[in-house]
Write a structure and sequence with these properties.
With 346 residues, this protein is α/β, with parallel strands linked by helices. It contains 13 helices and 15 strands. The radius of gyration is 19 Å and the shape is globular. One of its GO terms (molecular function) is polyamine binding.
Length: 346
């Protein structure tokens, strides 16, 4: 199982994981360097791209804005407007992407991604954020509600992501808001108050799914607000993990994809080869097995529709869903600033 300590993770951030194909640098989340996901690229060029890793979307943007050199970046949907506004990316030429029309249209339903200037974003993967828990020590009825994160019984036994988007998705859901595209001041204040209560129970904020899995596997925490991949890693280690996606208040979904960096240092042709490899139907099974995520390609999803991991971690649930779609950048910055205060104890 790929588990990283906080120290070892920090050593990887924004540094090449290995010097592979020097003509393509991909700035990515740790875990997505698994070659089977982009096997067609490896088959064509005989090597992986060079990867550099980051721990969260805001960190990645700041590094790119500060001059870090890469050809492709893998942000989640709500970050794309920041890359556009900063002039860091350019549109994709979809005539060079044969399987572009296989992307489910719902993942491109935003002027942030698709406008008169072109296609700014290639959505590739999606997943859920929900309650991961030790099924041997946490009763199932306790995770039937998001209030488990503020339950005094679990003080010091909880881990939340060090990701503003995910913790605010949790806090909004817990306080009755299921759409973050039109949040009132009252809804924001209620979510912030709830998040401060949850902070009192937090043993650690995880920076990477491998770190979250390590926290749970070591026995340090019993409950985490988790992506699918943290659950996959724990299952690989035979940890008794449950993944509750239908608490009464609901859970969250997100999707991510690739932006084309303007004036990237590598080969533009190889950037397209990489994207085309990602959009091959065979990438669906590799992505599910490696990370536990769904694919944006309808053809790729069709190849895995009957997989147990799809039914358990990606199927529709009978509960509210807060979709982490693009929201007001000013609201997002407000949430980020407030989250930093909460983590600091204010």
């Amino acid at each position: 199982m790929r588990l990283l300590t906080t120290t070892s993770l920090a050593a990887l951030i924004a540094l090449p994981a290995f010097a592979a194909d020097g003509e393509l640098t991909v700035f990515d989340w740790a875990g997505f360097e698994e070659p089977t996901i982009f096997q067609a690229y490896v088959d064509k060029h005989g090597d992986n791209p060079t990867f550099a890793f980051y721990g969260d979307d805001d960190e990645a943007f700041q590094k790119m804005a500060s001059g870090f050199k890469a050809d492709l970046v893998h942000p989640c949907s709500q970050m794309v407007s920041k890359y556009r506004d900063a002039g860091l990316i350019e549109p994709w030429d979809t005539s060079k992407i044969p399987n572009f029309d296989k992307i489910d249209p719902k993942f491109l339903d935003s002027e942030v991604f698709k406008d008169a200037e072109g296609i700014w974003y290639i959505p590739t993967d999606w997943g859920a954020t929900a309650i991961a828990y030790n099924s041997e020590s946490v009763p199932v009825e306790d995770v039937s509600t998001l209030q488990v994160f503020v339950d005094p019984k679990y003080q010091g036994r909880v881990s939340l992501p060090d990701s503003s988007d995910d913790v605010w998705a949790l806090a909004y859901l817990a306080t009755g808001t299921t759409d973050w595209t039109d949040v009132t001041d009252e809804q924001f204040a209620a979510a912030a108050d709830w998040l401060r209560k949850a902070h009192q129970n937090v043993a650690a904020y995880w920076a990477d799914p491998s770190e979250q899995a390590q926290l749970m596997a070591s026995g340090a925490v019993d409950i985490a607000w988790s992506w699918n991949d943290g659950v996959v890693y724990l299952q690989e280690d035979d940890y008794p993990v449950g993944f509750e996606r239908a608490p009464v208040e609901g859970s969250s979904t997100f999707f991510c994809g690739f932006v084309n960096v303007k004036n990237g240092p590598g080969s533009e042709d190889k950037a397209y080869d990489f994207i085309n490899a990602w959009l091959e139907p065979s990438a669906g099974k590799a992505l599910l097995d490696t990370i536990g995520y769904g694919h944006t390609s309808t053809d790729a999803m069709a190849t895995i529709a009957d997989e147990p991991a799809v039914k358990e971690g990606l199927s529709d649930v009978d509960a509210p869903i807060l979709a982490q779609t693009p929201n007001d950048p000013a609201q997002r910055e407000k949430q980020l600033a407030e989250f930093e205060k909460i983590k600091a104890g204010f």
